[in-house]
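re: ur question from earlier - yeah i can do the single chain one, its not a big deal. heres the input i used so u can compare w yours
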Amino acid sequence: MGDKTVIITTLNAAWTAPNSIFDIFLESFRIGNNTKSLLKNLLVVAFDQIAYSRCLEIHTHCYALITKNVDFSGEKRYMSGDYLKMMWRRTDFLRIVLQMGYSFIFTDADILWFRQPFAHFYSHVDFQIACDYYLHNSSDPNNAPNGGFKFVKSNNQTIQFYKFWNKSRRTYPGKNEQDVLNIIKYSPFIKKIGLKMRFLNTAYFGGFCEPSKYLNYVCTMHANCCIGLDNKIHDLRMAINDWKNYMALPNDERKSYKYTWTLPRICG
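and the output i got, formated as tokens:
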């Protein structure tokens, strides 16, 4: 990885419990194709003390981002009040990271890492983000971005953009950061500041909404289009098992056979 580029994920206590999302997330790095070495670049940001303590038990780089008078430890249902607070707290934290001069790959912890993603990032782009659904044109703003995976370079354009993104929370109250991004991606402000934005192909950066079709190409697999912690865990375990079966094949068979995911799943 380049200088001053980090991988960041965020977690609360519900996701760090033993045999929960965090364990599956770390396992994917260990069994992925040349991904284990990336763990040394992974910063885990904990939203509560329980998550922070659990992180310290099993990972090297942990940071406590604890908000006074707010309990982020339990499972937060999608679009609940606490969920929105947690997502916007995360977005503001990432702004601070950029202002400190660090570029980052942000990844939700319900994303499995099976291959290094760098070959599929666009050069000379400031902000690139995965999609729930991809329209086969990386420049098309009508793509449906998912804030759970993005590569953002630290520069003047991205810092201004993150400030604008956070400020837009007040313009569109009651919406999460992803919904707001879906609105502001059309804003003339992006052109004004010269931000170069691209959308990542689901063939490499897939999810349960639109899975990467073949394991020969997949870099990451996201438990999007999936509500409920238990449902996510169940289907992520299925994906982990698919990957293990794929990697157990002889090398020439892996290359020639278009191995895909097991169905049916609970999600998607």
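Residues 74-79 have pLDDT under 50 and may be disordered. not sure if urs matches, ping me
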